[in-house]
Design a protein that fits this description.
This protein has helices at 3-6, 36-46, 61-64, 70-73, 104-110, 112-117, 123-129, 146-152, 173-182, 214-218, 241-250, 280-288, 306-309, 311-318, 344-357, 368-379; strands at residues 19-24, 50-55, 81-84, 87-91, 134-138, 157-161, 188-191, 205-207, 230-234, 255-259, 272-274, 292-294, 323-326, 337-339. It is built from 16 helices and 14 strands. This is Glucuronosyltransferase GumK N-terminal domain-containing protein.
Length: 396
């Protein structure tokens, strides 16, 4: 697909619709899972933007690292534009990309990849990027692209979406240094948790919390469960697998449902089903009709911000589920049943209390449309269409 064809029409058929680029480790369309960046892309599309999602953090090195390039396995074409969900996607797979490595010598060897990464951006991305009015860069290897993007899209508002701390999620330490150096040049650094506000001195940072896809969760659905009670666990980030196994074996009458791409490292008991990575639309009924939401994070230094930013927790809470998770990730979470991560017996008791408590009323959570509108306002980007928000954004 050529650059001219790419920009012939937007969702409303107008050549004047503004263009947004998102650089993320996630893919769009074709049954892919959804994370915050995908939800944001969809919200920008609904607000009249012509949205282009460039998937990064993959290269020929991915195969050497035993990464099976999950998006490619799902049939997403590499290094060319494809249409999906009213947007344009580009799965970028260059020869190399900045990879996380252990050991100072290996880090020193791989550090030059950070400086070289931007130069590898293909012309198929660079040419349409020149017309962008809004660029969103996710907290991943995409931070190494900022300087090239700033030169190419000189007129664009560039926003850094700091969904995670780079070092916590295993990124190369050189990316963190690059981010600190570049942070003051971003038009806006958006953080979803108060705990992240002071991470980048000199940056124009703002607290804008995550939202959820309320359309999906407000839609009636049939229960996927035949018997209960049912505990659902969405996502594999920092998953405490030994604890999941213990809970499943301790509560044989509870049905546990785990959704995540990381296989279980133990033989699952009969009451635990590992569904693998599933499209978001299939996950929704499992949350809507569950009895308990699980957020079994293992303890990792610097991860406490999840108490405010965990997307799964927001989805659980909107559906009125009691949430069970470790103390460090549950501080300030209304109605959470927390446990001491150093004491497995504490988690058993927390789940017991959650089952006895049962479901409650849904909590007020912002929609992604509201989040997108707030980011456009704070960054100074153009509002493409009149869009009536359905709730307010709470930044406190």
């Amino acid at each position: 697909m050529t650059g001219d064809l790419l920009f012939d029409s937007g969702e409303n058929g107008s050549r004047e619709s503004p263009v947004a680029f998102l650089f993320t480790q996630q893919t769009i369309g074709l049954g892919a899972r959804k994370t915050s960046m995908v939800f944001l892309a969809e919200a920008l599309r609904r607000r009249g933007y012509r949205v282009h999602v460039v998937t990064v953090q993959r290269s020929w090195l991915s195969r050497l690292r035993r990464d099976q390039e999950r998006a490619t396995a799902r049939g997403v074409p590499r290094n060319r534009w494809y249409a999906a969900d009213g947007m344009q996607g580009f799965l970028w797979v260059p020869p190399v990309h900045p990879v996380a490595t252990r050991g100072k010598v290996r880090q020193w060897i791989s550090a030059p990849l950070i400086a070289a990464y931007g130069a590898l951006l293909p012309r198929a991305v660079v040419e349409p990027l020149r017309k962008a009015e809004l660029v969103v860069i996710e907290s991943c290897s995409a931070v190494a692209l900022f300087r090239r993007i700033r030169r190419v899209a000189a007129q664009a508002r560039i926003l850094y979406s700091m969904n995670d701390r780079l070092t916590v999620i295993g990124m190369h330490p050189g990316l963190q240094r690059r981010l600190h150096a570049d942070a003051p040049r971003y038009d806006l650094v958006r953080v979803p948790a108060q705990a992240l506000l002071d991470d980048l001195p000199g940056a124009r940072a703002a607290l804008v919390r995550h939202g959820i896809d309320r359309r999906a969760f407000d839609r009636a659905s049939a229960s996927p469960y035949s018997v209960g009670p049912n505990a659902v666990l969405i996502g594999d980030m920092m998953l405490d697998q030994p604890l999941l196994e213990r809970l499943a074996r301790t509560f044989p009458t509870v049905r546990f449902h785990y959704f995540g791409r990381t296989p279980l490292a133990f033989a699952a008991p009969a009451n635990l089903t590992a569904w693998g990575e599933q499209p978001f639309e299939r996950l929704v009924p499992f949350v809507q009709h569950a009895d308990v939401g699980l957020a079994l994070y293992r303890r990792v230094p610097g991860l406490a911000y999840l108490a405010e930013s965990s997307l799964k927790n927001l989805q659980y809470r909107y559906c009125g589920l009691p949430v069970v998770g470790p103390e460090f990730a549950m501080r300030g979470v209304p109605g959470a049943l927390s446990y001491d991560p150093e004491c497995a017996g504490s988690a058993v008791e927390a789940l017991r209390r959650a089952l006895a408590k049962g479901r409650g009323p849904p909590e007020a959570v912002a929609d992604w449309d509201d989040v997108a509108g707030e980011l456009l306002r704070l960054s100074g980007a153009r509002e493409a269409s009149v869009h009536r928000s359905r709730s307010s954004i709470h930044s406190g």
